Amino acid sequence: MTVAVVRFGGSNCDRDAVRALEHFGVDAEIAWHEDGLPAEVSGIVLPGGFSYGDYLRAGAMAARSPIMDDVRDAVADGTPLLGVCNGAQIGCEAELTPGAFTTNASARFQCEPASLRVENAETPWTAAYDEGDVVEIPIAHGEGRYELDEAHVEELENEDRVLFTYCDENGEVSPDANPNGSTHAIAGVLGDEEHVAVMMPHPERATLPDLGRTDGQGILKAFA
Ligand SMILES: NC(=O)CC[C@H](N)C(=O)O
Predict the structure, then answer these.
(1) DSSP H helical segments within 30-149, as ranges?
(2) Which of 86, 93, 104 to mutate to test ligand 1, by most ligand atoms within 8 A of the CB atom?
(3) pLDDT tens digits for range 43-77
(4) Which phi-psi region, left, alpha or beta, contains residue 152 (left: φ > 0; alpha: ψ -120 to 50)?
(5) Residue 212: Cβ within 10 Å count
(6) 72-114 pLDDT, tens per residue?
(7) Known catalytic membership, residue 202
(8) Of these residues, 23, 33, 85, 195, which one is catalytic?
(9) Fold classified for 2-223
(10) Is position 204 annotated as part of the catalytic site?
(11) Which residue in 10, 36, 47, 57 has the most C-beta neighbors within 10 A?
């Protein structure tokens, strides 16, 4: 079985995700959104990019593409899904995961390394880490500010559904170490069930040793 990396018009991290998955010997292929998902998939990646040019709101139009019906069915059957960056925006717009991503507090596109603290290491996506580990994984987005109202953030935190928060290199969370102004510095969350996750930073850009960073390996390894 293969991991489907869904390509929308404007996706641009799909091949990077395939390469990163192949690093672990995972069979991965790109699924063009108009063609639907292959009949049997072992996992789904919603990759980064600028689907539909980020018009309306980043991810809003892709979230309404017909392939998302296949994605919903597969997820309901327990197929693991990871949304990265634009894929995280799509995941939230499709309500597979809570919250929304809005324009960075800086109002600028930011492409830079980010330190993340692992908040819950007991999920398939973070099992390779220990709670409290600090990993460096790059961000590259203009609309990466995670927004969620306090009551729901509290619920997420109580249910251990926050995967990563932005932090400084010592693991301290503070406004200075929150690159986009996300609510509670949240960088990645789980859906209602732990096989569904989204994150703004790009683990596929921190997996292949040739790219100089490997801290993201543990996340994509979850598909192996
Ligand atoms: N790297 C990406 O996926 C880009 C994310 C996104 N569309 C933004 O700029 O907000």
Answers:
(1) 67-76, 86-93
(2) 86
(3) 999 999 999 999 999 999 999 999 999 999 999 99
(4) alpha
(5) 8
(6) 999 999 999 999 999 999 999 999 999 999 999 999 999 999 9
(7) yes
(8) 85
(9) Rossmann fold (3.40.50)
(10) yes
(11) 47
